[in-house]
Each structure stands twice: as C-alpha cells, then as structure tokens.
Amino acid sequence: MPSLKALRTIDLEQDYHAILIDMRHDRDDSLQSIHYISQQQNKVALIALCRDHAQLQRYKEVIHHLDDYILADHLVDGELPTRITHAIRRRLKEQELLHEQTRLQSLLDNIPDAIFFKDRESRFTKVNKRMQTVYGKAHPSLLGKTDFDLFSEEHAQAAYNDEQQIIRDGQPIVGKLEKETFEDGHFNWVNTTKVPLKDEQGRIIGTMGISRDITELKKAQDTLAHERSLLKTIIEHALAGIFVKDLAGHYLVVNQRHVKYLGAQAEPEVIGKTLYDFFEQSEAARISATDQKIMQSGQSIENLIDYRQRPDGSELWLLTSKVPLRDELGRCIGLVGISLDMTEQKLAERNLKKAIKTLEETKLQLIEAEKLKTVGRLAAGVAHEVKNPLNVVALGAEYLEGQIEGPEEMLEVIQDMRHAIQKANHVIFELLDYSSPHKVTMELGNINEIISQVLALMRHNFNESCITVHEDLSRQIEPVKLDASKMEQVFINLFLNAISVMKKGGSLTVRTRAEQIKSAGDNVSSKLTECFRIGDPVILVEVLDTGSGLNKEAIQKAFDPFYSTKTTGEGTGLGLSVTRSIIEMHHGVMTLQNRTDTQGACVRIWLPAAS
Ligand SMILES: Nc1ncnc2c1ncn2[C@@H]1O[C@H](COP(=O)(O)OP(=O)(O)OP(=O)(O)O)[C@@H](O)[C@H]1O
Ligand SMILES: [Mg+2]
Fold first, then answer.
1. pLDDT digit string, tens, across residues 167-176
2. Which residue out of 423, 426, 494, 497 has the highest number of ligand 1 atoms within 8 Å of its CB and is therefore the one to mutate?
C-alpha cells in the first residue's frame, strides 16, 4: 500500500478497485490513510489486514470505515482474492445505493408537487420540501402531524377516510380532484394520487401520496366553462340561426332556430350531417359552392339574401352572413354562419310593391276614365250637332235621286253620297250609344238563346267570308239576369271583329260553360278574383276565331275607345269598349287574348250565375 503522502497524489477511483491496508506493523499513518480514503466516498473498497483479533480490537474506532478486514492468523490459502473481490462488490453496491438515495432525495426536494409519507394513523413520517414550505408554515416540522393540523376538519376527514381505505384494501387512489379547504376559508384545487406504502415483507405500513396544485388550471377551466356556457346561452337564444361547419360541410354546431330552417326537429338530427341531407342535390350543391369559396378564399360574405323552400312548401327568405373559421395557427378549418329569417319582410315588401302597382294602375284608370268622360261628352255633343244637318243632307240626297233620271254617273254620285251618309249615321249611332247614360233593363234570359239568335242573324255574313261556325253551348246553363238587347250588341260586336280578321275564311267557335271560380294564379284570375269570390258559380262564354290574332299593341289597347287597326272609315274603334262596359253593367269580366292552341284570338266573358 502506498504511503499517505503518495495516496494524496493518486486518483484512487481511476487507479484502484480496492486498497488493502496492512496494519500488522502498527504504522502511524495506517489510521490516517483509512480516514483519508473513507472521506473520499469513492468506489474503492477498503480492506484492513491485521495480525489477529487482539490487534483489530485496537483499531475498533475505524472498523466501520472498512469494507472488510482480514486476520492474518486465520487466513487460509486462496482466501485473500475472494475476500477482496467480495469487498469490491459490496463497496460498489453501497456506492450505488448511496447515489440512488441522493437522486431520490434530490427528486423529492426539487419536484414542484407535494410528496408525503404517512404511517397507518395518517401521521406524516416524511414530507418533501414543497410539502413542508406550502403546508408547514405554521409548523417547523410536519413530521408526526396529520391533515387535521393543516386543513379544515371536513377536508382532513375525507383525506383520512381515503387513506384508511387504502390501508384496508391496498388499492391506490389515482388522480383524485380534491378541494383542499383550510380553516381560514381559503382553498386549493389539487390532483392527488395516494398509494399504499409497504415494508420488505409486503405489509402495508402506511400511505404515500403526491399532490399537484391545479388551482390556476381549475380557475382557467372554470372560466372556460363559464364562457362556453355563456356562448351556448347566447347562441341558443339568438333571434338568428347560427351554425358552424367543418371543411367538408358537416354541421358541428347548430342552434334551434337554424335546426328549424333546415326543416329538422332537434339538434342531434343535424350534427354531423351536410346540406345534402336536407336539400335536393342542386340546391345543396349551390349553397355548398358558396361555402367552399369562403373557406378557400378566406373572405367572408355578408348579408346574402337566400331563398329556400321549406319542407311544407312555404317560402323561406334568409339574410345570411358567413365567415371562415380559423385555428390558432390561422388555418381555415370551417365556417361560422348566421342567418336571419326575413320572410315576413320579404312578403310585406312584395305586398307593398303590389299595392303600389295597383295604385298606379288605378291612378291611370282614373285619368283614363276622366279623359273618356270628356271624350264621350264631346262626342255626344258633336254627334247631336251633326245628326240634324246629316238628316237634311240625307233627305236632300233622297229627293235628288227621285228627281234625276240621268246621266248614269250623276246617279252613281248620289248613291255614293247616300252610302257615305249611312256610314256617318252609323258612327253617330255608335258615338251616342257609347256616351249615353248606362241604363240596362235586367230580365231573366238564356245566354245560349241570345248567342244562337245573333249567329242566325249573321249567318249570311259568315257565309260570305267562308267562316265555319261551331256552336258549343252547354245545356247546363241556367237563365241569368240580363239586358237582352245589350247582350245581342255584345255578340254582334264580337262576331263582327272575328269576321273582320277572317276575311279569307276561318272558323269561329262559341262555347258556353257553367263553372266555379278557381283560386288566383295568372293575371286573368286576378282580374276575376277582384269581381268574384273563389267558388262563386259563373257562366263562361268563349269566342274563338282563327284570325290573325293580336299584336303586343292590340293586346294593350284593344279596349281603348277609338283604338282600331281597321282602315279609316272601316271602324270607329268603339266596339270592344262598348262591349266591355255592357259586360261590366252585368257585373261580369271580359278578356281578350291570343289563343294558345292555334293562331287566333280568344274572347272570354264570365257572368255571375243567377242564384
Ligand atoms: N278577334 C280579333 N282578332 C284580332 N284583333 C282584334 C279582334 N277583335 C278586336 N281586335 C283588335 O282590336 C281593335 C279594336 O276593336 P274594336 O272592336 O274596339 O274596334 P274595331 O273593330 O276596330 O272598330 P268598330 O268595332 O268600332 O267597328 C281592332 O281594330 C283590332 O285591331
Ligand atoms: Mg269591332
């Protein structure tokens, strides 16, 4: 063995596994060497070689520093190497154990969680630094204390019960959320795990536990939960439909109002579904395309007016805004939408537009009526003034015709004059008729009979123009209250119009039917529903020709007085306006349209059936 001086210069661990100190000669520095080596706390095994037991006794104050001692007296052959090897092994094990303990202690001291060991009576037998500093403020040492010294009775009792249960059944309690309440009322939230503590024989000698303070986390969780509940309340009670969708268009969040917009009953019917589950293919594709655009471009859409049909067929107008939904990194992960039901406003707007249109029309009608009244009065005045002089001219022409015998040309001139006078008389008659006060004499009569009579009367005119007449008169027609002579005039006017557009032949159909007014739909029906109620019994008369039909202008103006497409002198343009005013005197409705089945015009007259 080197001298103490030499020892001090050596890196013991590097160079030796074991040092055998020969003490047989009682050298002075032997003891000092033992002290020195043992202070190094290294892995080098320290073995002393003594002469005998008596000598060893003299060194008993250093025996505990030795890993082994060998008595030269008793040494048998080959024993020395074995003893040294065993001492080295023991030394290494001790060193490892020491390290292990140091590491464990360091862990206990530095871990931010509170760690404690308790005996079977739940008294602290060991606590780490954290436990002592946080919970042991009032106690210099927690050892021997219990939870009852630290916490409120309520919490201490609960913890005690848990520990006793662990001791009884040996089962750990893992990750229990505990509210640690203190006597002064403050509290911590901790997450605690407790396990049974056992001795080498496996007997439970107490418990060991670790507690992590999660008060801040719990506060954050509570705030989050509160905010979530607030948001849920707002979403659920909002007056608008609110929804959230993922990138594939699946509904993630939806409030009750939006559930209704989709025609569903409750939220679970919608979550995870897409538009295709609620709308027909083309409609769903249209809305999805807008959604995709928003998610791809990252641009939101505001106040988009969207029309949908509810499952019951009623209309639904939505004012929708959609914004892309992003994650913490700003990536688009879906969209959020909000939809306001504006069906009522839309319907009100439409009704308003309709009302304004009706108002405009009424205004125009009033102006027109006023104009016509003036024209009528003027016409009556003119007709009255012209009638008498024309009579004088007619009488004069008649007289001259009787007096003159020749020449032939002169007679022809007089004939022409008489024809012209006849035409002028006809115009005057029509003018006076148009402007005369509207008086009607109503009596029960059959419209079919009137039509047949007029057709018979005009048979010659039809034949002349090669027009075939189809009488399709229903037998169901009941007699109605009418002014027969005015009704005759109606059909004369209509048939004359038909003849004038079918000069080169054609076909005229006159049809009568007993009907009931159906629900409104097209323009004609809306006119009808102004005069009749749905379900009212009516007589429908149709006069169909195969003439030229009406152009755009004629459709608009045909009923205007003095509107005529006939050449001057051929017609006054009063026929239809007189006809319609007669129909209106009978509380009926009259329309003139082009036929849809073939070329030609179609006149329809609805008269109230006599009840
Ligand atoms: N059946 C029809 N087919 C095509 N156009 C028609 C028909 N009935 C009327 N019209 C058009 O409506 C115009 C007005 O008709 P209305 O009967 O009021 O006057 P008119 O026939 O021209 O003259 P009047 O009847 O006074 O001799 C006609 O000039 C014609 O252009
Ligand atoms: Mg006419």
1. 999 999 999 9
2. 497
